[in-house]
Amino acid sequence: MKNTMTVNSADQTMQLGEKLAPFLQPRDLILLDGDLGAGKTTFTKGLAKGLGISRPIKSPTFTIIREYQDGRIPLYHMDVYRLEEGGGEDLGLEEYFNGDGVNVVEWSKFVAGELPNHYLRIIFKRDDSKGDNVRTLTFEPKGERFVKMIHEMIGD
Ligand code: ADP
Ligand code: MG
Question: Where does the record place it (predicted)?
Answer without folding.
Answer: Cytoplasm
